[in-house]
Amino acid sequence: MAEIAAELVAVERMLWSGKATSVTAQTTEGEIGVLPGHEPLLGQLVENGVVVIRTTEGETLVAAVQGGFLSVSTAKITILADSALWAHEVDTADAEARERDASTDEERELAQSELRAVKRLQES
Questions:
Q1: ATP synthase F1 complex delta/epsilon subunit N-terminal domain location, by residue (predicted)?
Q2: pLDDT tens profile 1-25
Q3: Which of 18, 36, 87, 118 is most buried by its number of CB atoms within 10 A?
Q4: What CATH number does the domain containing 54 carry?
């Protein structure tokens, strides 16, 4: 199976680096799926989006991301997020409470992004 190097990096930490068979991300132009051999591109990630990485080991990694960029070259996919959180790190009850009790749209959207990532992980 074809593979490509990939990284998911947030301002506060490196989340993952390895070989992937595909990466899916939500950009300002819509959802994009990137496979090995994809044309080079630079995309802006949406606020409160989800990134899905399928590794060469068969794992599906899902993260909630807050803005940033997706860079695709012939040899590598790099996701540079303003912030990111693995779906398995999300406390669902806490995120639901924060969504319900949010005092700003930004707080509500952040909680919704985390819940979407959890749902995406459960679907994979």
A1: 7-84
A2: 799 999 999 999 999 999 999 999 9
A3: 87
A4: 2.60.15.10
Number of domains in the chain: 1
CA angle 31, 80, 71 (to 5 degrees): 60
pLDDT, tens digit (0-9, with 9 covering 90-100), for 43-67: 999 988 999 999 999 999 999 998 9
Q: Give the C-alpha separation, 79 to 69, whole Å.
A: 6
SS3 for 77?
strand
Q: Check if the beta carbon of residue 87 is closer than 8 Å to that of residue 120.
A: yes
Question: Could you give phi then psi for residue 3, rounded to 5 degrees?
Answer: -140, 160
Give the pairing type, strands 60-72 and 30-34: unpaired
How far apart are the C-alpha atoms of 82 and 47, rounded to whole Å? 9
Query: Which residue, 68, 122, 64, 109, is CA-closest to 90?
Result: 64
